[in-house]
Specification:
The complex is a heterodimer. In chain A, 27% of the residues lie in helices and 23% in strands. In chain A, helix 10 links the parallel strand 15 and strand 16. In chain A, 43% of the residues are buried. Helix content of chain B is 50%, strand content 13%. Chain B starts with 12 loop residues before the first helix and ends with a helix. The chains are: A alpha/beta, B alpha/beta.
Chain lengths: 338, 448
């Protein structure tokens, strides 16, 4: 039973897929089966829509989510009424989404369900707090949405399971390279520097740490190009409050050329820059570190592509393990599911 | 007119509503949708209830914990009018709707218990007794607000469910269970529908309790007062603007409150130095009138207010380039509206800031004078500010005290004559405006 024991020490875990059809739902079902058997109170939600039988984009068949009795789950009003299992309604959200309000319920009988919980990060955080403190859930599982990493932010969930596979690329080298890039982002080191509280709340702005310990805002105005070179000579680190984009990364790289500085971001989900730019930055300028570090528990692979092509599972797992240094599992393969 | 219609009145009404600490967003909706009270009877009933609650339970602060507990309970109040309407039509409710009903019942029950235990009595307020319905939706007496079709409703259902646990995928068992569940939903809906009116009353009462608590809390937080009601004469002692008072307080400054009195038939003419607070006073009076007719605390140390049917305001530059209206044309449009309303015979409060200010002084003065005469009617209370010398008009006159030992004194004093203070140059000097220009202007006045 791989990585379940390790997972149990966290109170929340998000499952993040690098592409559709990388086996996120299979991974979720695996967790639901295994965690249930060790007597932990479970709560699950999805930031997208999960458990529907036919993929809304590709039209291919999808695995359904199966719940046992006693699991707390969140879903929209619309899907709650469609769900086949019987459940005790615990809470009804006040805000209306596109699928109605969010129903929080506890399964009375077992059965298949469609999950579609709170979608914004703040609503998700609130939901997790409610189920943890009011309904005493031991562990929250968040099923992520395609290309949405924010729910994997350490500010939301404490652990991550990454799913990748043939749907991302049929070329093993490319698949391993792209997956390893995300893994490297997740394991960016935590910074030793303390970011003063006043900039902590702000989700924007770029700040400078100086040699003498001073901390000041730069590029704050509407004109990011007006920065005097004198300020930069004393710089030891730069803190980016918002998203780290390609453009910003290049700008910082240009301004700090020849200096050895540390670039600090909030957490890995704030990086929206390409592999190449991140790599070049770390080679030319210095290291990138985070305020809040995420814990990657495991990587799961799905060697089957939606078009039917299948990669060599053993080779894929071995290469990905070698490239990342993390445990890699193919939970479809025999051995785990018996 | 409803409260939501006066939100954009530019008088600062939104600030008061945003400051209101309502527990439930449903109460907020109820408040926004409530009509502005027009009769003395309605207004006094509201203040009697609010004033009594405020003095007994809020002003002394001894019920803080109880009120916090009520606030917490009322925060689970939801807008279930849709579900109650379905119930009235005789529809069968689904589990989510039954959950909503149960949630209302629990909120009602918990609120009732707290009010009874702490002996808090609110005038003209009573909560429905719905304990029997709660028993219906909580057959296991768990007291929690969760809901499902409990096994306690049917021994048969309990049997099928336990068999389902061993035989998860039996379609037959699931079907049988769903038949019984539907039957139970039908029976529950029928029983609950007999008390539909009580449920509606309970929902409204709980929202109005939330509103009373929030209004009383605001009175103590913003230093508002409960007004007295009169027929024709309004008087404010220590009138202030809560929003600006708060802003000044943040800067470590003190708001200078003002006293003012006015009545129907005799328009009040306000003169005084620029920056003397005339416009703000008009705004404060307009805001207070709205707050009064919506049953809120009044931003004054004490106030006596006469109800009106309509508040009409002519204030600020209403130039509208999109409608092709100049400042003057836009102002005339509004003044015309005020005059039409005054002829209709309904009780009117007209607040007019510097009418005809953007035209030549000789015609402007005549227009103001004529406006005062036209508005001197038994159904109109008019307050007009001006910089013109308006003589022989049927009005009461007050003036801002003005610069006093280098500082602005915003207090009003009664005056007899028509002459207006000449403090424009002084005021401009205090603002640091170019001296050459102001010296030249002063010289020209002397030469005249």
């Amino acid at each position: 039973m791989p990585f379940i024991d390790e997972l149990l020490i966290y109170d929340s875990v998000s499952i993040v897929g690098l592409e559709k059809n990388t086996g996120k739902t299979e991974c979720l079902n695996y967790l639901l089966r295994r965690i249930d058997s060790v007597d932990k109170k479970l709560a699950i939600t999805s930031v997208g829509l999960d458990g529907e039988r036919i993929d809304q984009v590709t039209g291919t068949a999808k695995p359904e989510i199966f719940l046992r009795e006693g699991v707390i789950f969140a879903t929209s009003e619309k899907h709650f009424k469609q769900n086949a299992l019987h459940a005790e309604i615990l809470d009804l959200s006040e805000s209306h989404g596109s699928l109605g309000r969010v129903v929080t319920a506890r399964s009375i009988t077992s059965g298949k369900i469609i999950l579609s919980g709170p979608s914004s990060t703040s609503e998700l955080k609130e939901w997790m707090e409610t189920v943890r403190f009011k309904y005493r859930a031991d562990i929250c599982i968040i099923d992520g949405a395609l290309s949405r990493m924010s729910q994997a932010s350490p500010a939301v969930s404490s652990a991550i399971i990454l799913t990748t596979g043939a749907a991302l690329s049929l070329n093993i080298n490319n698949l391993v390279f792209r997956s390893a890039f995300v893994v490297n982002l997740i394991r960016l080191p935590k910074t030793d520097r303390v970011v003063p509280e006043f900039s902590e709340g702000s989700s924007r702005g770029i700040w400078l740490f100086k040699k003498d310990g001073q901390f000041c805002e730069i590029y704050s105005g509407n004109n990011p190009d007006s920065i005097s070179k004198d300020i930069l000579t004393d710089a030891v680190a730069v803190f980016v409050g918002g998203a780290l984009t390609d453009r910003l990364l290049k700008k910082i790289k240009g301004d700090f050329n020849g200096l050895d500085i540390e670039l600090i971001i909030r957490d890995f989900t704030r990086i929206f820059a390409s592999e190449r730019n991140v790599f070049e930055f770390t080679r030319d300028i210095g290291k990138i570190s985070v305020l809040q570090k995420s814990k990657l528990v495991a990587i799961c692979v799905n060697p089957l592509a939606p078009n039917g092509a299948r990669l060599d599972s053993t080779r894929l797992c071995d290469e990905l393990r070698a490239a990342t240094g993390y445990p890699v599992y193919d939970i479809f393969k025999d051995g785990y599911e018996n | 007119m409803k409260i939501k219609h006066i939100l954009s009145s530019q008088l600062g009404f939104r600030y008061i509503l945003d400051d209101l600490d309502l527990a439930s967003s449903f109460s907020k909706q109820m408040l926004y949708d409530s009509s502005i009270k027009l009769t003395t009877k309605e207004i006094s009933a509201g203040y009697e209830q609010l004033g009594d609650f405020f003095t007994k339970y809020v002003s002394k602060g001894s019920f803080t914990h109880t009120i916090k507990a009520l606030h917490r309970i009322l925060s689970s109040l939801r807008d279930i009018r849709g579900t109650l309407a379905k119930l009235a039509q005789g529809s069968v409710l689904d589990d989510i709707e039954l959950f909503e009903i149960k949630n209302l019942l629990i909120t009602n029950e918990e609120t009732k218990t707290i009010l009874e235990e702490t002996l808090i009595g609110i005038k003209n307020f009573e909560l429905e007794n719905l304990a029997d319905l709660l028993g219906l939706l909580d057959p296991e007496k768990s007291g929690t607000n969760s809901f499902y079709i409990y096994e306690a409703y049917s021994i048969e259902l309990a049997g099928i469910r336990s068999r389902l646990k061993e035989n998860r995928f039996s379609a037959e068992l699931s079907y049988q269970a769903s038949l019984i569940e539907n039957r139970i939903r039908r029976e529950l809906s029928k029983k609950i529908s007999l008390r539909q009116e009580s449920l509606c009353l309970s929902l409204n009462s709980l929202a109005s309790l939330d509103i009373i608590i929030a209004k009383a809390g605001q009175i103590s937080r913003l230093g508002l007062s409960i007004p007295s009601i009169s027929k024709h004469k309004s008087s404010y002692h220590g009138l202030f603007n809560p929003e600006i008072k708060e802003l000044l307080m943040k800067e470590g400054k003190i708001y200078q409150k003002t006293d003012i009195e006015f009545e129907t038939l005799t328009p009040l003419l306000m003169t005084g130095a620029n920056m003397g607070g005339k416009t703000l006073t008009l705004r404060n009076i307009g805001l207070s009138q709205y707050l009064f007719q919506c049953g809120f605390g009044i931003p004054a140390d004490s106030a006596t207010i006469a109800p009106v049917s309509e508040v009409l305001i002519s204030m600020g530059d209403m130039q509208n380039i999109y409608r092709g209206l100049s400042s003057f044309a836009a102002e005339m449009e509004i003044l015309n509206m005020i005059l039409t309303a005054s002829k209709s015979g309904k009780k009117l409060l007209a607040l007019i800031d510097e009418p005809a200010r953007s035209t030549n002084p000789s015609e402007g003065t005549a227009l103001v004078k004529a406006l005062i005469s036209t508005l001197a009617k038994p159904n109109v209370t008019a307050i007009i500010s001006t910089h013109y010398n308006v003589s022989d008009a049927p009005c009461k006159r007050i003036r801002v005290t003005g610069f006093d030992k280098g500082k602005m004194n915003y207090a009003f004093v009664d005056v007899d004559g028509a002459s207006v203070p000449h403090e424009a140059i002084n005021t401009a000097r205090s603002l640091g405006v170019d001296n050459d220009w102001l010296d030249l202007a002063e010289k020209m006045i002397e030469n005249n």
